[in-house]
Amino acid sequence: NDKADAYRKEVLSELGFFDYVTFRTAGEDEDLTLRLRMSNKKIVATNALVLHAHYQLFSSSFKCLTKLLSKEFTFGRAGGALRRKFPFHNPGSYIHPRPKSFVNDGLFRTIVCIGCFIPYAQIVLAPVLILLSLPGVLKTVRKTKMNSTLVSYPLFNIMRYMSYAIGYVVG
After folding, report:
1. Is residue 133 within 8 Å of residue 158, measured between CB atoms?
2. Which range in 11-15, 27-31, 50-54, 103-107 is most confidently predicted, on average pLDDT?
3. What angle do CA 47, 72, 49 make, to 5 degrees?
4. Average pLDDT over the chain, rounded to whole?
5. How far apart are CA 92 and CA 10, in angstroms?
6. How far is residue 151's CA from residue 148's CA, in Å, rounded to a whole number?
7. 3-state secondary structure the chain
8. What number of other Cβ atoms are within 10 A of residue 24's Cβ?
9. How many CB atoms lie within 10 A of CB 116?
10. Mean pLDDT lowest for which of 6-15, 86-95, 131-140?
11. pLDDT level of residue 1 (50, 70, 90 thresholds)
12. Measured distance CA(38)–CA(89) in Å, rounded
């Protein structure tokens, strides 16, 4: 995903280390990678495998749902903080070498989510929110083969987007 996973000490000393004040639980690596790109430092891809020690997400319990929504809130907060820190940077390009589509930008998703609560705007934006959630639904169905709960996937993804949007505004 083009994140830097190892850094030279002299580069970190020059650019500054992880911004743990702004990015308390997520986004610090994207921030550092963006600062590396903006200073024209060389970023080299490796074959290193990075595993994140996340909790098991295979449970259908309420506790698992709240953890997932909390995680989305955290990612949203990081996305909002990155947008405020680098307002003119293209969406998604702090991770990816080429800017991603505006549809993948956290600001766009946040506007769509907030717009779903505005009279008349919700006529257009609620279907957009449903369409935005479909790729995640299809990916989940392919990965888990849990077709029996297919009806709940769109609702779950909309909840994820709303949680992200709240985090984005807070961030």
Report:
1. yes
2. 11-15
3. 10
4. 77
5. 27
6. 8
7. CCCCCCCCHHHHHHHCCCCCCCCCCCCHHHHHHHHHHHCCCCCCCCCCCCCCCCCCCCCCCHHHHHHHHHHHHHHHHHHHHHHHHCCCCCCCCCCCCCCCCHHHCHHHHHHHHHHCCCCCHHHHHHHHHHHHHHHHHHHHHHHHCCHHHCCHHHHHHHHHHHHHHHHHHHC
8. 14
9. 21
10. 86-95
11. very low
12. 10
For residue 171, what pLDDT is reported?
80
Instruction: State which of 3-12, 58-67, 162-171 shows the largest mean pLDDT.
Output: 162-171
Cβ atoms of residues 161 and 137 within 8 Å: no
Please write the tens of the pLDDT for every residue from 158-170: 888 888 888 888 8
If you search the block for the tokens 């610090």, which residue do you land on? 28
Buried b (16+ CB within 10 A) or exposed e, 27-65: bbbbbbbbbbbeeeeeeeeeeeeeeeeeeeeeeeeeeee
* Measured distance CA(130)–CA(159) in Å, rounded: 11
